[in-house]
Design a protein that fits this description.
Elements lengths: L18 H31 L2 H11 L2 H28 L6 H28 L5
Helix pairs in contact: 1-2, 1-3, 3-4
């Protein structure tokens, strides 16, 4: 008879969290966020085509405090997905498979995404783009 007191397969409570796990989970999650967030971009394009009144309504929603948080998060998701996608392309070319390189590139994609997001929003907010 089989011992059923142990788990049938490993799960998140057994694995020790590593940056590689985090980047894999974040890549999937940001892909979902980007797909859902693209509906906001579509709404903006439709509002732009709908005239100044429709676009003013869109701009007031996106320019609200909650809208700014959503747009900041969507921008970070885009930057992270881009950085991690480039990391995957490099690995697909056959480079960066050593554990130290893998960990370094994982941290670089996380930190780089925050830097890109902060630089983007610094530019937007200082140039009056969010006004």
């Amino acid at each position: 008879m089989a011992d059923t007191s142990r788990p049938l397969s490993p799960h998140l409570q057994i694995y020790k969290w590593q940056v590689q796990m985090l980047t894999s989970i974040l890549h999937r999650a940001t892909g979902i966020v980007l797909a859902i967030g693209s509906l906001i971009v579509l709404w903006g394009l439709l509002a732009l085509a709908g005239g100044s009144e429709a676009f003013a309504q869109f701009a007031s929603c996106v320019g609200s405090p909650l809208g700014m948080v959503v747009m900041f998060g969507w921008t970070w998701a885009f930057a992270y997905h881009l950085c991690n996608g480039i990391r995957h392309l490099v690995q697909d070319a056959g480079a960066g498979y050593a554990i130290a390189q893998f960990v370094r590139s994982s941290w670089l994609s996380i930190i780089g995404s925050f830097v890109i997001t902060l630089l983007f929003w610094a530019f937007v907010l200082t140039s009056g783009g969010a006004a």
